């Protein structure tokens, strides 16, 4: 999903929301849900790898945009989609990064005949310092390498990364936010701060 606001100077400061899903029924359901809140919504049906270019073309130059990427697992978190969206002038990202998929499957994915994580972080396998890493430290290494790749696109990855768990102690996702400008980073740090922090 990409939400954007045209600049106030353009005279049209309301929010536009572009939703994308491979399933037309889901795209339509999201469209109806968001339109009910008063947003101008447009849906794109198809594989995100294809629809992202059409979405980018709709966003006016200079608009303030937020891209929310919510794939079921790491296989569909395509780095190429992030790279293409990163070409928008003002864009921040909120990404559900699947920890469960990473933790369960990374050792299998070391097999060069497999490719489920290759779209998320192209070339990752050849960058793993295999001699130095134990199996249990591989997921942390992969996540740090992914954050670094995001940083190399010019973004600061927020220190606040809320952990979504299944209520049984298993971590499912981290909601990772990254931006280029300090203001969205500051706002995110305020809203995503752990509820467990003491006020005193
Ligand atoms: C975790 S759900 C997203 C839920 C959504 N954030 C919401 O609030 O309704 C993942 C979605 O990705 C869609 N999906 C799966 N593969 C896809 C692909 N290659 N391109 C685009 N969407 C895909 C699924 O149909 C599913 O609706």
Number of strands: 8
Mean pLDDT: 91
Beta percentage is 15-25%
Radius of gyration: 18 Å
Spell out which ligands are present: S-adenosylmethionine
Shape: globular
The unreliable regions are: none
Write the layout of secondary structure elements.
Layout: E1 2-5, E2 15-21, H1 24-35, E3 40-45, H2 48-58, E4 64-69, H3 79-85, E5 90-98, H4 99-109, H5 124-127, H6 138-152, E6 156-157, E7 163-165, E8 171-179, H7 182-191
Parallel strand pairs: 2-3, 4-5
Antiparallel strand pairs: 1-2, 1-4, 5-8, 6-8, 7-8
Helix pairs in contact: 2-3
The structure holds S-adenosylmethionine.
Residues 20-23, 26, 30, 47-48, 70-72, 76 line the site of S-adenosylmethionine (SAM).
Question: What do these coordinates show?
Answer:
By secondary structure, the chain is α+β, with helices and mostly antiparallel strands. The chain is about 35% helix and about 25% strand. Strands 1, 2, 3, 4, 5, 6, 7 and 8 form an eight-stranded mixed beta sheet that branches. Strand 7 (about 165) and strand 8 (about 170-180) form a beta hairpin. The relative contact order is 0.12. The model has no long low-confidence stretch (mean pLDDT about 90). The structure holds S-adenosylmethionine (SAM). S-adenosylmethionine (SAM) binds next to strand 2 and helix 1.
């Amino acid at each position: 999903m990409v939400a954007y606001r045209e600049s106030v100077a353009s005279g049209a400061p309301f929010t536009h929301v572009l939703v994308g899903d491979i399933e037309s029924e889901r795209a339509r359901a999201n469209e109806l849900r968001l339109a009910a809140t008063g947003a101008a919504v447009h849906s794109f049906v198809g594989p995100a790898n294809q629809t992202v270019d059409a979405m980018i073309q709709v966003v006016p130059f200079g608009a303030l945009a937020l891209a929310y990427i919510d794939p079921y697992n790491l296989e569909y978190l395509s780095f190429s989609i992030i790279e293409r969206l990163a070409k928008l002038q003002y864009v921040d990202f909120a990404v559900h990064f699947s920890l469960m998929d990473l933790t369960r499957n990374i050792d299998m994915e070391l097999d060069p005949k497999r490719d489920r994580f290759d779209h998320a972080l192209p070339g990752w396998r050849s960058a793993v310092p295999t001699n130095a890493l134990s199996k249990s430290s591989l997921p942390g290494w992969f996540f740090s390498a992914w954050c670094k790749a995001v940083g190399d696109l010019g973004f600061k990855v927020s220190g606040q990364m809320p952990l979504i768990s299944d209520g049984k102690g298993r971590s499912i996702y981290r909601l990772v936010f990254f931006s280029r400008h300090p203001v969205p980073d500051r706002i995110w740090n305020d809203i995503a701060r752990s509820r467990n922090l003491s006020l005193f």
